[in-house]
Amino acid sequence: MRCGSGHRRRMQMRTECLDCPSKTPATNTESRRWILLRLIKSRLCLSQLKNLQNAPKKTNVKTLLEGLKVGRVVEGCDRFGVNQSEFSIQQGCLMRGIRVYIPPKLRQRVLEELHTGHFGVSRMKSLARSYCWWETVDRDIEDLSRDCCECASVKKNPVSVAPHCWEQATEPFQRIHVDFAGPFLGMYFFVIVDAFSKWPEVKIIRDMTTDTTIDRLREYFVTYGVPSVIVSDRGVQFTSDQFREFVRRNNIMHKMGAPYHPATNGQAERFVQTFKEKLKALKCERKDVQFELYKILMAYRRTVHPVTGKSPSMLVYGRQMKSRLDLLVPVADLKVSSRGEEEPVRCFTVNERVAARDFLGASKWQFGTTG
Ligand SMILES: [Zn+2]
After folding, report:
1. What is the Å distance from ligand 1's center to 230 Cα?
2. What is the value of pTM for the model shown?
3. What's the CA-to-centroid distance between 265 and ligand 1, angstroms?
4. Running DSSP on this structure, what letter comes out for residue 339?
5. Rounded to whole angstroms, how far apart are CA atoms 19 and 343?
6. Which ranges in the chain belong to alpha helices (H)?
7. What backbone torsions phi and psi does residue 107 show, to the nearest 5 degrees?
8. How far is the CA of 151 from the centre of ligand 1 (A)?
9. Mean of the per-residue pLDDT values for the chain?
């Protein structure tokens, strides 16, 4: 392929000329090593994708890219047997619909990114459907999930849970379900799940007393508002007079599950179970737990929930939260507004008569001329 415009060419000089057959093998090897090093050290980003898609290897993709550029329909085998109209080039990247094509070298790295938080096949596939595509993406996801030791070590037979139907919540943070998890590495976790959006919140706590519970709930209310209903089990934190008084003062209806029947609080229960499995799968050290927790929450909040068919982020904010995966998809360059930042709000010429607001003196305005 031909190198792009002058500006782009300068930016990608070190990598883009991989395509040029005139380059010596030594330079090629060096450039490739440089790409891989950058890839390992940094995030996946657009320029890396672009360069690897254009790599000199005789792949279908190169023929397809050429075909798309000149508007020629290529052989079926050179477009993965997919209708060519589904493909396009955006900022030098091959796209299938909204998904960016991932070249073989980057697939493992992308799979790992999709598997952040060790969520299962269906969640990974639904994430992939929003961002990336390659001919064997579904199979690779299934293989990765099946072969992941961490996932396998905590896999359980599904537990049958007696269904308990709560009335449908109609908006986010109207009804929340709370529960505790732990101890894990000497830490406890306070888990809150919103019934409407399934938005999870997990706070690391030092103990499970009523004081701590109320503190964490106050923190939650500041961010998401006071709910109408809190659902919990019959733990001592929730049956204490202090907690009863707390919910009364906040005008919250407190519902407790049936005794010895924790499944009533299914929403939180299920998330706690998922969360415990993730923690076990992590095998991380105590100092890394908070960081790993952030990753789990981020992945969960962004992933389509099987019950709602939407991600918690979508239901709470009406948009998908950005993550590293978003770096894969090319976006239009941000345009600088017609009114540049340098432009002053008001312009004066020399010797122009002006009035200045005086905030200290007796008279409101001071008059003069510009010098
Ligand atoms: Zn896993």
Report:
1. 32
2. 0.59
3. 27
4. S
5. 43
6. 6-11, 13-16, 25-41, 46-53, 60-70, 104-114, 121-131, 137-147, 149-153, 210-224, 236-239, 241-249, 266-282, 289-302, 312-317
7. -65, -40
8. 4
9. 79
Count of alpha carbons within 13 Å of 153, Cβ hemisphere only?
12
Please state, in angstroms and rounded to a whole number, the distance separating the CA atoms of residues 86 and 100.
12
DSSP 43: -
Q: Give the Å distance between the CA of 338 and the centre of ligand 1.
A: 48
Rounded distance from Cα 107 to ligand 1 centre (Å): 16
C-beta pairs of 87-92 under 8 Å, 24+ apart in sequence: 89/65, 90/330, 91/46, 91/50, 91/330, 92/4, 92/8, 92/50, 92/53, 92/54, 92/330
Q: In 3D, which of 117, 50, 144 has the Cα closest to residue 275?
A: 117
Dihedral sign from CA coordinates of 263, 264, 268, 271? positive
Could you give the CA distance from residue 117 to residue 132 in angstroms, rounded to a whole number?
A: 18
Note residues around ion ligand 1 (Cβ under 5 angstroms).
118, 148, 150-151
Residue 354, H or E segment: strand 353-357
- For residue 343, what pLDDT is reported? 56
93 Cα to the center of ligand 1, angstroms: 29
Please give the average per-residue pLDDT across 121-135, as a whole number: 89
Tokens 């049958």 belong to which residue? 160
Cα dihedral 217, 222, 226, 232, rounded to 10, equals -20
Which residue type is seen at 296?
I
**pLDDT (tens digit per residue) in 39-94:** 444 555 666 667 766 654 455 688 899 999 999 998 888 888 888 999 999 888 89
User: Who contacts 258 (Cβ-Cβ below 8 Å, separation ≥6)?
Assistant: 264
Higher per-residue confidence, 236 vs 344? 236
Two tokens at 210? 């009523």
